[in-house]
C-alpha cells in the first residue's frame, strides 16, 4: 500500500497525478474534479484512496476458446462445478460466522474489562482517575484502528457497503477485497467498537464477508494465489459476483443473527443482478452462519468466553411483552414514521456536509486523518463519562430485587454510577456501556419509569452529534447501530409522551423509532422489517413495523436519496441506478456516439504494429473487430463489411505476450489456437502493454484475432433511447455495448460507436448536452 495517496485531477485531455490527499476539495465542489466530456477517464474514491475505476466483465465472452471449453466439459465436470459453488457458499458462511464470533468475543472482553476498571474507580470515588483510564484506553484503541487504516489499508475505512454495491453493479473497486483489507477491517473494527466510538460492526461485517468470498473465489491473495485446476471455474467476474453477494448477506446475518434478513438485505440493498439459484446459495450461507453463532453461544454459556455474555450475538428480545394496540394507536405509529422520514433525510443532508468538511480537514495528509480520529475519540470519551453527572439519581423500584437495581457491573439496566445505594443513574445506564448494551437497555420492556425525559433528550442529542462526527473518520465504521440508537431515543420519548393514552410498551416504541430512522436514512423496507422481527423475536410487531417503514421511506424519498447513494456520489463511483432519468428518453444512443471520439476498430487479421499502436495510444478496454470484403449469404458482387465481434484489451495483450504471430495474413486452425491458449489464460487480467516486448521484425507480422473475439456482443440500434439502453446495460451487467447504424450503406463502418458505463452516467451526459440541464426540471413530471 502506498504511503502517499495520489489525487488525480482530470484536465481537458490529459490526466495529471498530484501527490495530494484524495479528500482535499472545497465545500462546494465534488470530491473529484472530472473532465467535462463524455469520454472522461473514470476516477473514484475507494475507501479513502483515489483509484482508476474500470468496469467488470459480467458478460459471457463467447469466443472460440470459450465454446471449445464449454463443449469439452463432461457431466462430471459440470457436477463438480455445481458442487464447488455450494462448497464455497458453505465456506463463506463458516468463515464469516467464525470471524464475527472472534470480533464479538474481542469487543465484549476488551470493553468489559475496561468498564469494570472504570466502575472500580467510581466506587472508590476516584472519578478523575476513572475518566483518565477510560479516555486513555479509548485513545489507544482508536489509535491502533486509525494507524492500520491510514498506513496499510485505506480501503478498509468506513462501512464498505457503498463499494460493495458498486462492485455488484459492475464497477471494479481496486484493493477493496484484498487480504490486507480483510485483516485491517477485522482488527480495526475490534479497536474502533471497543473504543466506545458511535459506530457499529454491522457494516464492516458485510465488508468482511465480501472479502472472504472474494479471496475464496480467486484462491487467496494476489501474491500467494492457489492455482488449483478446479478453481479455474471461478476465475471470472460472474461467479465472483455471486460469491460476494453470498458474503454480504452472511455479514448482515452475522451482525444481527438474522438469516432471512441477510438474504433480503443483499437482494434489496446491494445486489443489482439476482436469480433463484443465487437466492438458494445466499440462504444456505446465512444458515451456516446462524449454526456457527448458535454453537458459540451454547459453548459460551459455560463461562469459557471470558466476559462474553449478552453481547452482539444475542437478540434484543422484546418477546416477553404482549403487543396490544387499537385503532387509536395507529396515530402515534404514523407520527413515528413521519419523524423517521424527516429526521432520516435531515441526517443524510447534514452528514453529506460533514463529509465535505472532513475532506477539507484531511487535505494535508495522513497526520491530519489520525488527529481527526483521535480528536473524535477524546470528545466521545468526555461526553460518555461526563454527561451522566448531569442526570439526577432515581430511586430503585421497590418491586425490583437488590441484585437488579442498582448494578455496578459492565451491563445492567439500572447502573448506580455516582448514586448512593438504592438509587441508579438512568443516563449512565445508556452511556457508560457498550453500544449493544445501550440498545438492549433502551429496548427493554416493562420499564416505563426507568428513563426520564431529560436523560432521553440528552442521549438523543449526543448520539445525533456523535453519529455525524464519527462517520467519515479513518476507522472501519458502520451506520446501522448509530441510527438505531438515535431512532430508539425519540421513539421512547414519544412513548413517554403518549403515557396512558397508548397500549404499546415504551420498549416497542423504541424499536419502532429505530426502524423508522433506518428506513428514513437508508430507504430499506422489506429487509429492515425482517431484520427487526428477527432481532426482537416478536412476530406481533409485523403490521405496525411495516406501516412505520413504508411511511418513513416515502417521506424520506421526498427530500433526498438514501445515505448509501449519497456516499456513492461523493466517492465518484459510477453506479447505474435502476431508474433512468426521464430526460434520458429524449436523447438517442446515436447522439451520444456523435459527441464521443471516433470508435477504434481492428481487422480480423491485423498487423502487430497496428495493435501495439492502438494499445499504446488509447485507454479503451474493448475494440470492435471487423472483416472487409466478406461475401454475405445473400451474395454481393462488391463484398460487405462484417462485424465479427468485440475483443478485449486484455486479450490483445495476451496475444502479444504469447507471440501469436504469423508471417502471412491467414486465419488459423482450431488446433493451433488450442495449442497456444487456454480458457485459464483468457481469464487473467492486469497485464499492461508496457510489459510486452515486440521486436522490429515482429511488428510486420500478423495476428489472427478471430479466435479471441467475442462473437456475440450486445448491440443496439443508434435510434434507441439512452434510457432504454441504460436499463439493458444495467440488467445484463455489461461492460461494452456496440451501437449499430440503422441503415447500412456500402463502404460504411458497421459500428457507429461503443457505449460504456461512463457514457450512461447522468452528469457525464449533461456535460455533453448542456440544454438537457436547463430543461430536465420541467421533464421530471413526465
UniProtKB/TrEMBL annotation:
It is found in: Membrane. One of its GO terms (molecular function) is voltage-gated chloride channel activity. It is a multi-pass membrane protein. It comes from the Eukaryota. Residues 709-773 form the CBS domain. Its main location: membrane. GO terms for cellular component: chloride channel complex; plant-type vacuole membrane. SUPFAM superfamilies: CBS-domain pair (SSF54631), Clc chloride channel (SSF81340). The chain crosses the membrane at residues 81-107, 127-153, 278-297, 330-350, 370-391, 453-473, 479-497, 539-556. Belongs to the chloride channel (TC 2.A.49) family. This is Chloride channel protein. It comes from Sesamum alatum.
Amino acid at each position: 500500500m502506498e504511503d502517499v495517496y495520489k489525487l488525480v485531477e482530470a484536465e481537458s485531455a490529459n490526466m495529471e497525478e498530484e501527490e495530494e490527499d484524495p479528500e482535499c476539495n472545497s465545500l462546494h465542489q465534488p470530491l473529484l474534479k472530472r473532465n467535462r466530456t463524455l469520454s472522461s477517464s473514470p476516477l473514484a474514491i475507494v475507501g479513502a484512496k483515489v483509484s482508476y475505476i474500470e468496469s467488470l466483465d459480467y458478460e459471457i465472452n463467447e469466443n472460440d476458446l470459450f465454446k471449445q471449453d464449454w463443449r469439452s466439459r463432461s457431466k462430471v465436470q459440470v457436477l463438480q462445478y455445481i458442487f464447488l459453488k455450494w462448497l464455497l457458499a458453505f465456506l463463506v458462511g463458516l468463515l464469516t460466522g467464525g470471524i464475527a464470533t472472534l470480533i464479538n468475543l474481542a469487543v465484549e472482553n476488551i470493553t468489559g474489562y475496561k468498564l469494570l476498571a472504570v466502575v472500580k474507580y467510581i466506587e472508590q470515588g476516584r472519578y478523575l482517575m476513572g475518566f483518565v483510564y477510560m479516555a486513555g484506553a479509548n485513545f489507544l484503541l482508536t489509535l491502533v484502528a486509525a494507524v492500520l487504516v491510514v498506513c496499510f489499508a485505506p480501503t478498509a475505512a468506513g462501512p464498505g457497503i457503498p463499494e460493495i454495491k458498486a462492485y455488484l453493479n459492475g464497477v471494479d473497486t481496486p484493493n477493496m477485497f484484498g487480504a490486507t483489507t480483510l485483516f485491517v477491517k477485522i482488527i480495526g473494527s475490534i479497536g474502533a467498537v471497543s473504543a466506545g466510538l458511535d459506530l457499529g460492526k454491522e457494516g464492516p461485517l458485510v465488508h468482511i464477508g465480501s472479502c472472504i468470498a472474494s479471496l475464496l473465489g480467486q484462491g487467496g491473495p494476489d501474491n500467494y494465489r492457489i492455482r488449483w485446476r478446479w478453481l479455474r471455474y471461478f476465475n471470472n467476474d460472474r461467479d465472483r459476483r455471486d460469491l460476494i453477494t453470498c458474503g454480504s448477506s452472511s455479514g448482515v446475518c452475522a451482525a444481527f443473527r438474522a438469516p432471512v434478513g441477510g438474504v433480503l438485505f443483499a437482494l434489496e440493498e446491494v445486489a443489482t443482478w439476482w436469480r433463484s439459484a443465487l437466492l438458494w446459495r445466499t440462504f444456505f450461507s446465512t444458515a451456516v452462519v446462524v449454526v456457527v453463532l448458535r454453537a458459540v453461544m451454547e459453548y459460551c454459556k459455560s463461562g469459557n468466553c471470558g466476559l462474553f455474555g449478552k453481547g452482539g450475538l444475542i437478540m434484543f428480545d422484546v418477546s416477553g411483552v404482549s403487543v396490544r394496540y387499537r385503532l387509536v394507536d395507529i396515530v402515534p405509529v404514523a407520527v413515528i414514521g413521519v419523524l423517521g422520514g424527516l429526521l432520516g433525510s435531515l441526517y443524510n443532508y447534514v452528514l453529506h456536509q460533514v463529509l465535505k468538511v472532513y475532506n477539507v480537514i484531511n487535505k494535508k495528509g495522513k497526520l491530519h486523518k489520525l488527529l481527526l480520529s483521535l480528536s473524535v475519540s477524546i470528545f466521545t470519551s468526555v461526553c460518555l463519562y461526563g454527561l451522566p453527572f448531569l442526570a439526577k439519581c432515581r430511586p430503585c423500584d421497590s418491586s425490583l430485587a437488590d441484585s437488579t437495581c442498582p448494578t455496578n457491573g459492565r451491563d445492567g439496566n439500572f447502573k448506580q454510577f455516582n448514586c448512593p445505594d438504592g438509587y441508579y443513574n438512568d443516563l449512565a445506564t445508556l452511556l457508560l456501556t457498550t453500544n449493544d448494551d445501550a440498545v438492549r437497555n433502551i429496548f427493554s420492556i416493562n420499564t416505563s419509569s426507568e428513563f426520564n425525559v431529560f436523560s432521553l433528550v440528552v442521549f438523543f442529542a449526543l448520539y445525533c452529534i456523535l453519529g455525524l462526527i464519527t462517520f467519515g473518520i479513518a476507522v472501519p465504521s458502520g451506520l446501522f447501530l448509530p441510527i438505531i440508537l438515535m431512532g430508539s431515543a425519540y421513539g421512547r420519548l414519544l412513548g413517554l409522551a403518549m403515557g396512558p393514552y397508548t397500549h404499546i410498551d415504551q420498549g416497542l416504541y423504541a424499536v419502532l423509532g429505530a426502524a423508522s430512522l433506518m428506513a428514513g436514512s437508508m430507504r430499506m423496507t422489506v429487509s429492515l422489517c425482517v431484520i427487526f422481527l428477527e432481532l426482537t423475536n416478536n412476530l406481533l410487531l409485523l403490521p405496525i413495523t411495516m406501516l412505520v417503514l413504508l411511511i418513513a421511506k416515502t417521506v424520506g424519498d421526498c427530500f433526498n436519496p438514501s445515505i448509501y447513494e449519497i456516499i456513492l456520489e461523493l466517492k465518484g463511483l459510477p453506479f447505474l441506478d435502476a431508474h433512468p432519468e426521464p430526460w434520458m428518453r429524449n436523447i438517442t444512443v446515436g447522439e451520444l456516439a456523435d459527441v464521443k471520439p471516433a470508435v477504434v476498430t481492428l481487422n480480423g487479421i491485423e498487423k502487430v504494429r497496428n495493435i501495439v499502436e492502438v494499445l499504446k495510444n488509447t485507454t479503451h478496454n474493448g475494440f470492435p473487430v471487423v472483416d472487409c470484403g466478406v461475401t454475405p449469404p445473400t451474395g454481393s458482387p462488391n463484398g460487405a463489411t462484417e462485424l465479427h465481434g468485440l475483443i478485449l484489451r486484455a486479450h490483445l495483450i495476451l496475444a502479444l505476450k504469447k507471440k501469436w504471430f504469423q508471417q502471412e495474413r491467414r486465419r488459423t486452425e482450431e488446433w493451433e489456437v488450442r495449442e497456444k491458449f487456454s480458457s485459464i489464460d483468457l481469464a487473467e487480467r492486469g497485464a499492461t502493454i508496457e510489459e510486452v516486448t515486440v521486436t522490429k521484425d515482429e511488428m510486420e507480422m500478423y495476428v489472427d484475432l478471430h479466435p479471441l473475439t467475442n462473437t456475440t456482443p450486445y448491440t443496439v440500434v443508434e435510434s434507441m433511447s439512452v434510457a432504454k439502453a441504460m436499463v439493458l446495460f444495467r440488467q445484463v451487467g455489461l461492460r461494452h455495448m456496440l451501437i449499430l447504424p440503422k441503415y447500412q450503406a456500402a463502404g460504411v463502418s458497421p459500428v457507429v460507436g461503443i457505449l460504456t458505463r461512463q457514457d450512461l452516467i447522468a452528469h457525464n451526459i449533461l456535460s455533453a448536452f448542456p440544454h438537457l440541464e436547463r430543461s430536465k426540471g420541467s421533464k421530471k413530471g413526465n
